Amino acid sequence: MIELYPAIDLLGGRVVRLRQGDYADETEYGTDPVAMARGFADAGTPWIHVVDLDAAKSGDPVNRPVVAAIAAAVQGTSRVQTGGGVRSVDDARQLADAGVARVVMGSAAVRDPALVALASEVVPVAVGLDHRSGELAVHGWTKGSGVMLDDAYERFPTADVFVITDIGRDGMLEGPDVEGLTRSAELAGAPVIASGGVSSLADIEVLAAIPGLGGVITGKAVYEGRFTVAAGLAALARAQGADR
Q1: DSSP class of residue 224?
Q2: Which of 76, 138, 179, 234 is deepest in the core (most CB within 10 A)?
Q3: pLDDT digits (tens, 9 = 90+) for 82-103
Q4: Residues 148, 180: contact at Cβ < 8 Å?
């Protein structure tokens, strides 16, 4: 089953989207992320993907109270998956205590793969593999890691899922990297969640045909009115119904 993950990216408590991870190129879409999350939950989404952009860059989890408020607001309706600055088992535990169902570890996981196994004892962990032309990026996408995407999957045997983001496509509405995501789904030992470039319902339907894909993250396309969360959910349901 492929799930839709509407995204809420937090910067100073505001809902924003960055272009290609550039903090100097942001667009604000609201100042009430909790209300936005409630709207997504009311539309029927089983998951909401929340990113603390401040923590991803600086390590300071300034938006953690907002993440907790989102989790409380949608409890019983949608589950929250959150990343950005999750760099220790204690971070994972605090988020789990705040009602988060799954944490995303990116930079910390790449730097110390054993940390994922430890954090997985506290809460399910999604490993965020964010790349530029196949090289994983860390520290809020500001630095290259020297680790290639294809070589990363076997480092994380306890990963619940992998979130694969093509940074060059993120926030660009130019379509997802279907070929690359297909390869990732073949190589990964856990379901892959696609992130970056989704611009239309047609993109969602194409992604739904990839074997081993577990989810699709969408952000800017929803905020720009390309489609609604309800329409995205319906497109996934149609695509998966056609496959059966």
Answers
A1: T
A2: 138
A3: 999 999 999 999 999 999 999 9
A4: no
